[in-house]
Amino acid sequence: MAYMSQQMKKELAPAIKAVLKEYGMKGTIAVRHHSTLIVNIKSGALDFSEYMDGRDYLSPNQYHLENNYQGECLEFLQKLVKAMMDGNHDRSDSMTDYFDVGWYIDINIGDYGKAYEYTGPARDPKVAQIADHFPGIQIDEIEEIEITDDATARQFGMQ
């Protein structure tokens, strides 16, 4: 049966805080229902806007990070999950409907009532507009933008 105590949280906190500090993130650590370790990330230097889909918050699925995130955001989330899972076990068998984990984890980036605050370097508004228009583009990979279509150039204010 999944169990997470305040003492266990206290023991995992230094490693979790080290990951947050390494990536310039601000967050809190909590326990919910004595079974789930939660990290709530309020603000930070990583830009998650391309993954937000117009929402103010994000709850990454720990099992599908590689499919949904890229670059430094993926690296951060993988290290955070590793720190949160230190000492955990998963002897579940979905074929027999048997679930046995040490504890569950949740990561929340932003909150329904308070949006995640990006505190990193300011983004070029035109690059940001284009990146928002084309999901999956890594903003830090854009070096030069060349638009040859007049209508598209007008849409992004580049004419």
How are the secondary structure elements laid out?
Layout: H1 6-22, E1 25-32, E2 36-44, H2 65-68, H3 71-84, E3 104-109, E4 117-118, H4 125-133, H5 150-155
Helix pairs in contact: 1-3
Helix percentage range:
25-40%
| Proportion of residues in extended strands | 15-25%
Overall mean pLDDT: 84
What shape does the CA trace take?
Answer: elongated
Distance linking N and C termini? 62 Å
For the record, the count of structural domains works out to: 2
Task: Provide the gyration radius in Å.
Answer: 19 Å
Our count of helices gives 5
Largest sheet, strands/sense/barrel: 4 strands, mixed
SSE ordering: HEEHHEEHH
Find the structural class using helix and strand composition: alpha/beta
Oligomer: single chain
Number of strands: 4
Q: Poorly predicted ranges (pLDDT <50, ≥5 residues)?
A: none
What does this structure look like?
By secondary structure, the protein is an alpha/beta fold. It has five helices and four strands; from the N terminus they run αββααββαα. Strands 1, 2, 3 and 4 form a four-stranded mixed beta sheet that branches. Helix 1 runs antiparallel to helix 3 (71-84). The protein is elongated.
